[in-house]
Each structure stands twice: as structure tokens, then as C-alpha cells.
């Protein structure tokens, strides 16, 4: 269900508690990532928070260029978030997502620094070399964060960006950080794997999705520099057909590979 969000927590605070001055505080912040991806990649943009202590409510809008990124959904929901209740998706085809949440108990909720509040799943549909900001905005839902004093605080919002590699930079960038070979064999029945070469040590995350975008398996491991073999868990793929595996390295580079289960 697509739900429009636009409730003002400032109005709620004034109505309930009669406070009129905003706190001069900037310790609470929301941030979007800066990422470089391959053309046609499926990516997760993690929205993270710091200084999220005793927060009663938050709302804002997010925007991006819909010619570069296609919205696929939200996931990794923290707190008591609900995809249909706390996100307004009616404008996602034109590059706008609204967010609105409050703690029904009014006791305030806390998350550790750098926690993921939620993740936005996108498909990189732009032309090679294109890019877009992933920005926090006031339109149509204004930015507002309220803590347990029930006075809006001056929270910080850090915009992110997604860039799609151009033809010449794909190999250049991959050579500098990470290379992922094609699935071998492909198609496969029982056993398959990817060869991954890392130019430096780091954390490699890989996740397999079916044709509908449903996550089948997800793993993350620290690897040293060099070549490594990443096995495919074929037994988790119940239905023959197309799947894709998305690799991310140190939360930055995103590479997608297609695989076919017979």
C-alpha cells in the first residue's frame, strides 16, 4: 500500500507540551552513502544515524534522479518501522521518498552510532558515467526530529551520491580495488563459484537474489589481498532459473553477476 506521509512532529510537540523554542543541538545526524557501482547493478543505500538517543520522532523527504536510479523498496528496518506505514512511496517513480516515524510510547528510542535505520534498494538504470545525489530534502515532508524534551532539535543531514562507472573506468576502478569473475560453471546444477581478486584487504559482502529481487542468501567475510574463491550455495535455490549475485567491498564498490540454476 502506498501511503502519503506529511505529519508534523513540531505541531504534535506544540500541541502536547506547549514548547516554542527549538534546541540548538546538532549531535543527531542522518547520512546517506556515497557509492560507485557498475551499470545495471542492484544496490542497497544504507541510511545510517549517529547520536540517535532518546528520539521520539523524525520525518523528512529523500530525492534522487529517477533516470539514474530506480526505486525497488526499503528493507533492514530498525526501531518499529513498517514499510507501508512509515514510508511514502507514491513519488518514487519521480525520485522522491518520504519518511515519517514516531515512538508511540513517547519514551524515546536509542540506536548505537552508525546503526542502519533502513536501507533503500535501487537498480542503477542510468547510462555509464552518470551520477545522482541521494539527498535529504524538505519537499514534500519537511525535515524534523524531536527528542524526549518534545522540542524539535537541529539535527544534521548528510547527503550521499551514486555514480555509475563509465566504459573506460569499469576495468580501471575494478583493477584498483576488486575484481569478480563470472560464475563458473554457468549454467550450473549443484556446484558453482566466483573467483574474486582483491588489491587490498577488506570486508567482502555477497548476496544472492532471485528474479523477483528476493534475497536467497547473504554472507560477509574479511579477506586479505589476493585471489579467493567464493562458493555459490546452490542448494538454497529451489527453482531453476535466473538469479544474480551482488558483491560489495568495504561498503563501497558494488558488482553484480548473473547466474543460472538448471
Describe what you observe in this structure.
- The structure is a single chain.
- With 262 residues, the protein is mainly β.
- The chain has two domains: 9-18 and 25-164, Immunoglobulin-like (Sandwich); 177-261, Immunoglobulin-like.
- 9% of the residues lie in helices and 47% in strands.
- The protein contains three helices and 20 strands.
- The chain has helices at residues 9-17, 83-86, 167-176, and strands spanning 29-31, 34-37, 42-50, 55-63, 69-75, 87-88, 96-102, 115-124, 131-137, 144-147, 152-153, 156-158, 160-164, 178-180, 193-198, 202-210, 215-223, 226-231, 241-249, 253-261.
- The strands form four sheets. Strands 2, 4, 6, 7, 9, 10, 11 and 13 form an eight-stranded mixed beta sheet that branches.
- Strand 6 (87-88) and strand 7 (96-102) form a beta hairpin.
- The longest helix has 10 residues, at 167-176.
- The radius of gyration is 20 Å and the shape is elongated.
What structural class do helix, strand and pairing data support?
mainly beta
Strand percent estimate:
over 45%
Put simply, the count of helices is 3
* Span of the ends, CA to CA: 35 Å
- The number of distinct β-strands equals 20
* Low-pLDDT sequence parts: 1-7, 10-26
CATH topology of the largest domain: Immunoglobulin-like
Mean residue pLDDT? 84
Total tally of structural domains: 2
Radius of gyration: 20 Å
Helix content: under 10%
Report the CATH C-level class of the largest domain: Mainly Beta
State the order of secondary-structure elements, H for helix, E for strand: HEEEEEHEEEEEEEEHEEEEEEE
Biggest beta-sheet profile: 8 strands, mixed
Shape: elongated
CATH architecture of the largest domain: Sandwich
Amino acid at each position: 500500500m502506498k501511503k502519503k506521509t506529511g505529519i508534523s512532529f513540531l505541531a504534535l510537540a506544540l500541541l502536547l507540551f506547549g514548547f516554542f523554542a527549538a534546541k540548538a543541538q546538532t549531535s543527531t545526524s542522518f547520512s546517506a552513502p556515497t557509492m560507485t557501482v557498475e551499470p545495471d547493478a542492484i544496490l542497497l543505500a544504507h541510511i545510517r544515524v549517529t547520536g540517535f538517543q532518546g528520539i521520539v520522532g523524525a520525518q523528512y523527504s529523500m530525492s534522487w534522479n529517477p533516470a539514474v536510479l530506480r526505486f525497488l523498496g526499503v528493507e533492514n528496518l530498525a526501531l518499529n518501522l513498517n514499510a507501508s506505514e512509515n514510508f511514502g512511496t507514491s513519488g518514487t517513480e519521480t525520485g522522491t521518498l518520504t519518511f515519517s516515524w514516531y515512538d508511540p510510547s513517547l519514551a524515546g528510542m536509542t540506536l548505537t552510532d552508525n546503526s542502519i535505520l533502513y536501507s533503500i534498494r535501487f537498480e542503477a538504470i542510468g547510462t555509464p558515467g552518470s551520477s545522482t545525489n541521494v539527498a535529504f530534502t524538505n519537499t514534500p515532508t519537511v525535515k524534523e526530529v524531536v527528542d524526549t524534551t518534545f522540542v524539535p532539535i537541529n539535527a544534521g543531514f548528510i547527503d550521499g551520491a551514486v555514480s555509475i562507472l563509465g566504459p573506460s573506468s569499469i576495468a580501471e576502478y575494478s583493477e584498483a580495488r576488486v575484481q569478480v569473475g563470472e560464475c563458473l560453471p554457468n549454467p550450473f546444477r549443484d556446484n558453482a563459484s566466483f573467483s574474486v581478486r582483491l588489491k587490498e584487504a577488506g570486508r567482502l559482502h555477497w548476496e544472492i537474489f532471485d528474479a523477483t529481487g528476493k534475497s536467497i542468501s547473504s554472507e560477509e567475510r574479511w579477506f586479505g589481498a589476493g585471489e579467493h574463491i567464493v562458493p555459490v550455495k546452490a542448494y538454497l535455490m529451489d527453482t531453476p532459473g535466473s538469479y544474480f549475485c551482488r558483491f560489495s567491498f568495504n561498503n563501497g564498490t558494488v558488482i553484480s553477476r548473473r547466474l543460472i540454476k538448471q
